[in-house]
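User: Some background: our group keeps a shared notebook of sequences we're curious about, and every so often someone picks one and asks for a predicted structure to add to the entry. Today it's my turn. The entry only has the sequence so far, pasted here. Could you supply the structure so I can complete it?
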Amino acid sequence: MEFEKFKTMQFPRDVYVGHGVMPNIINVARQYLKSGSIVIVTGNTTYGIAGKEIESLLVDNGFDVHVFKTDRAVGENLQALEAFSSEVRAGMLVGAGGGSKIDLAKKASFDLSIPFISVPTTPSHDGIASPRASIVEDNCTLSKEASMPICIIADTVILSRAPYRYLRAGAADVISNLTAILDWKLAHRLKGEEFSSSAAAISEYAAKELLEKSHMVMEGVEESVWLVTKQILASGTAMAIAGSSRPASGSEHLIAHAIQRTGPGNSIHGEQCAIGSVISMFLHGGDWQALSDAYSKMGLSIRVRDYGITESTVIKSLSTAHSIRPERYTILGETDISKNACERTLEVTGII
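Assistant: Of course. Here's the predicted structure to add to the notebook entry:
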């Protein structure tokens, strides 16, 4: 029988990480913009942090630049961005901001078949370097196929100015890869799901690197930003190799999304993933205490009350999280977890 298996993978062609790397965007634009204008996707706050500098650098070097300011990564904003980009004949997008701006840019890039550059202003999660976009539709966060950035420019000068909360949330998002890998292996064994040992190895390495060096994730230290950002990029590479978010998204992300949907209080994604990973590791019978200790060293709490999340909310979230993506098999199984089992898990792990 003739061998016919094939697979495609997308990787960034250029990655600039470190102190003062922003001016490299000029040469990147010269190399990859074939025709048309450049649209900078940003927000009111992130425009001042990075968008304005990007605009100045590009305009001063002769590029036709337009700024599209937006906020949440929701379907309506995505449609508005794509309409605006078509109107100004965009040949390239630049996502300058946190997760939502980059998610919108990478999804619009995919839909419009034009390249995009990822310029994160916060190291808050691994979406800055992955070919998946989290778009909210009907109050539910969906992971959609999107473009891998043609270039990533992660300037640690800019990233170190972000509130420390975002840095430790980004570290937690990567550390939570450990339970995603366990879920992926489980789905491979029980459901026959395709598994990539190389993608899993990269993802696991990134997570363990931050787990072991969690004491080095500190506020106001540019080297800490460097440490976390490198592993965020490694996590994105793992997803590119796998062709899915499997290496970095399992039951812990389902729990995080369920919390976001049910009642997140003032928590953000990486914090929700930290909570989810401790729960998931407990259910897998693994060393959940090691995760909890690492988060504690970074100053990240896993107690839901610290985020204004009620006990009933997290119980409901854990019980029903499997239904967020029923096609993705995890340790959560395929039916609701009983209230008694939820309460015991949350009490033992110190979540409630």
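Suggested note for the entry: Residues 28 and 104 are 20 Å apart (CA to CA). The chain is about 50% helix and 15% strand.
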